């Protein structure tokens, strides 16, 4: 008897964030209404949404406490991502 029970159920993706940002892979939404996002690395909860999480991961000084547990790989990835955003804004 060959029982076929190895079929994986299709993942339900009904609660996707409106804009797919690469930073969502590194944070968890705590409170969407208040834009609270938790860092996956240091478990710190940041208020200010995904943009704040990116600043936290890249360790931009001033507006948010820097992440102490993020890997250099991830940090560099978002460093470049932020730079691309910045350069696309300057349009001379
Ligand atoms: Zn962190």
How would you sum up this structure, described in words?
GO terms for molecular function: DNA binding; zinc ion binding. Residues 1-18 have a biased composition (Low complexity). InterPro entries: Znf_BED. Keywords: Metal-binding, Zinc, Zinc-finger. This is BED-type domain-containing protein. This protein is α+β, with helices and mostly antiparallel strands and 92 residues long. The protein has one domain (23-87). Helix content is 30%, strand content 13%. The protein is built from two helices and three strands; from the N terminus they run βββαα. It has a three-stranded antiparallel beta sheet with strand order 1-2-3, with helices on one face. It starts with 26 loop residues before the first strand and ends with a helix. 18% of the residues are buried. The mean pLDDT is 84.
- Mean pLDDT, to the nearest integer, reads 84
Work out the helix count. 2
Q: Tell me the structural class.
A: alpha+beta
The global form is: extended
Alpha-carbon Rg, integer: 17 Å
**Overall helicity:** 25-40%
Span of the ends, CA to CA: 70 Å
* Main pleated sheet: 3 strands, antiparallel
Give the strand order, joined by hyphens, for the main sheet: 1-2-3
Give the low-confidence spans. none
Task: Give me the count of strands.
Answer: 3
> Which compounds are bound in this model?
zinc ion
Instruction: State which percent range the strand residues make up.
Output: 5-15%
In N-to-C order, the SSE pattern is: EEEHH
Tally of structural domains: 1
């Amino acid at each position: 008897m060959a029982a076929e029970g190895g079929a994986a159920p299709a993942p339900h993706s009904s609660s996707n964030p409106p804009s797919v940002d690469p930073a969502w892979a590194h944070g968890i939404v705590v409170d969407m209404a208040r834009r609270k996002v938790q860092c996956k690395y240091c478990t710190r909860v940041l208020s200010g949404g995904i943009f704040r999480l990116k600043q936290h991961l890249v360790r931009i000084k001033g507006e948010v406490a820097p992440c102490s547990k993020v890997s250099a790989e991830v940090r560099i990835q978002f460093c470049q991502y932020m730079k691309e955003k910045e350069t696309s804004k300057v349009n001379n």
